[in-house]
Amino acid sequence: MRASLHAREVIKKLMIFARQMPPQKTRVNLNQTVGESLYFLESRCAKEGIKVIRQLSPDLPDVIADQSQMTQVLVNTVVNAIQAMPEGGQLNVRTSYDENSVLLIVEDTGTGMEENVQRQIFQPFFTTKDVGKGTGLGLAVVYGIIASHGGTIHVDSTVGKGTKIEIRLPILETPNPGER
Question: pLDDT tens across 59-101, in order?
Fold first, then answer.
């Protein structure tokens, strides 16, 4: 039963990555997504000795996105950050925006990645984890989701200091008065 459920999850992730599951896009506030997602992950962080710091822009504009896929983006990036801090550390989750984009930034004080690893992290099935500890689909799925939403993702990592993942999504454009 467990193997079947695991296989179902792997197939779902592959379908999202291959863009075979079209997003169900609506108005989404990333602050709400962050709050709901971190609610489920904060106890794990506390158990692992990880301090979570939220810095959420109070007037964050909405984006047009698939709510469940945005949750998956946040969960996948946060879980990777947790796994990169086996001795504990600090996890910063920030939202902000500029004139064109809403930004979601997940930053950890973990082990960091060498440049050759950074170049491969969005490839399906690439993992640095031990057998049975990961599928190598987490960040590949994140990349596919962000790309399907017209966004970008940038990774900055230093071995021994940590990793910063910056995701940019287009701001929901509101029509001018009189436009439909």
Answer: 999 999 988 889 889 988 998 899 889 999 999 999 999 989 9
Task: Convert the pLDDT of each residue in 120-145 to its tens digit.
Answer: 777 665 565 554 555 556 677 888 88
* Residue numbers of the domain that contains 15: 2-170
Domain-located, residue 160: yes
104 within a domain of the structure (yes/no): yes
* CATH classification of the domain holding 118: 3.30.565.10
Residues 6+ apart with CB under 8 A from 103: 94, 95, 96, 97, 166, 167, 168
Q: Kindly state whether residue 177 falls inside one of the protein's structural domains.
A: no
Higher pLDDT, 63 or 10: 63
In a domain, 176, yes or no: no
What does the buried/exposed string (b/e) look like for 163-175 if buried means 16 or more CB atoms within 10 Å of the residue's CB? bbbbbbbbbeeee
Phi/psi of residue 177, each to 5°? -55, 140
Cβ(106)–Cβ(155) under 8 Å? Answer: no
